[in-house]
Amino acid sequence: MKTTIIVLGMAVGAIALLVLITYIVGAFLPAEHVAEGERVVRGPIELIAERIRDVESQPKWRRRVKSIELLPPDNAGGIHYREVGANGPMAFRFREVTPNRQFESVIADDALPFGGRWIISIDPVDDGTRVRIREEGTVRPPIFRTLSRFVFGHQSTLLRYLDDLETAITAKRVTKT
Question: How far is CA 145 from CA 31, 71, 154, in A?
């Protein structure tokens, strides 16, 4: 019995120490980060632009998006919507900055422990369309900063988006031929 209590106390102490170290590391990391990723998608720029701008259809092609609810317009302009996905509900503002070339998606929920925006740029190339995503993000709680930097990676969501977009475009092109 005494040995069990000692082992349990050591385990709790080790977990507390790990949490403290994670917090301290995160406190020294900047809250802001920039992550980037790109992919050449074998499809015409018009089709890819259409897929990106049609936020309502995202649950059909993005694996981790369960639903999209359009919200009333606000003063910021663009499309205001709520995405329900693996991380729960999140409000976004989406706008097309340059027709068929550049889009901006901004997290519009200050209550979340993270925030920021994506700038999605698309350009025609010989093999199809280059899709670039630049994430300018903020992670507020120090523990989440450590986890997002060293465990999950700042690029994980944008790379998953690129994977899903490529799959959706490829599947659409296959079914049309």
Answer: 7, 30, 10
Backbone angles phi, psi at 77, to 5 degrees: 85, 175
Q: Name residue, tokens 């994506």.
A: 118
* Architecture of the domain delimited by 31-176: 2-Layer Sandwich (3.30)
Q: How far apart are CA 59 and CA 27, in angstroms?
A: 36
pLDDT digits (tens, 9 = 90+) for 103-117: 999 999 989 999 999
The domain limits of the chain are 31-176
Q: How far apart are the first and last CA of the chain?
A: 71
- CA–CA distance, 167 with 58 (Å, rounded to integer): 13
What sections of 54-155 are H helices per DSSP?
58-61, 142-147
Q: What is the pTM of this model?
A: 0.87
- Inter-residue contact 40 to 128 (CB < 8 Å): yes
The amino acid present at 158, given as its one-letter code, is L
Rounded to 5 degrees, what are φ and ψ at 42?
-80, 85
